[in-house]
């Protein structure tokens, strides 16, 4: 019996700096990346946003994926998002760490 091969997910290269910054400039996408970074692991999609519907969240995930910042990872029958921190740091050293650190400071100030 021949097993069907599952297609590998498309892995976008990390985009140029301008596209990465444009992806991160939106407050919803920045919060998604902040939550992923702070979790330190792949996270179920629904845990990464509040106050928007699923189709809007999908739009934001697509922009982050096209910029090479995140990728999908199926687990436990659900889609999770994984932050590609190593890949982004290789392409643009220190960017995510700096942006997330500032986003965390601003989030704490609002709490």
From TrEMBL:
<dbReference type="Pfam" id="PF12840">
    <property type="entry name" value="HTH_20"/>
</dbReference>
<dbReference type="InterPro" id="IPR011991">
    <property type="entry name" value="ArsR-like_HTH"/>
</dbReference>
<dbReference type="GO" id="GO:0003700">
    <property type="term" value="F:DNA-binding transcription factor activity"/>
</dbReference>
<dbReference type="InterPro" id="IPR036388">
    <property type="entry name" value="WH-like_DNA-bd_sf"/>
</dbReference>
<dbReference type="InterPro" id="IPR036390">
    <property type="entry name" value="WH_DNA-bd_sf"/>
</dbReference>
<dbReference type="InterPro" id="IPR001845">
    <property type="entry name" value="HTH_ArsR_DNA-bd_dom"/>
</dbReference>
<feature type="domain" description="HTH arsR-type">
    <location>
        <begin position="19"/>
        <end position="97"/>
    </location>
</feature>
<protein>
    <submittedName>
        <fullName>ArsR family transcriptional regulator</fullName>
    </submittedName>
</protein>
């Amino acid at each position: 019996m021949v097993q069907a091969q599952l297609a590998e997910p498309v892995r976008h290269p990390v985009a140029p700096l301008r596209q990465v910054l444009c992806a991160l400039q939106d407050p919803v996408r920045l919060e998604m990346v902040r939550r992923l970074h702070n979790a330190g692991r792949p996270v179920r999609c629904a845990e990464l946003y509040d106050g928007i519907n699923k189709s809007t969240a999908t739009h934001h995930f697509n922009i982050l994926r096209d910029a090479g910042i995140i990728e999908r990872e199926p687990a436990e029958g659900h889609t999770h998002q994984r932050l590609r921190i190593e890949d982004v740091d290789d392409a643009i050293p220190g960017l995510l760490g700096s942006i997330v650190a500032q986003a965390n400071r601003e989030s704490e100030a609002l709490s």
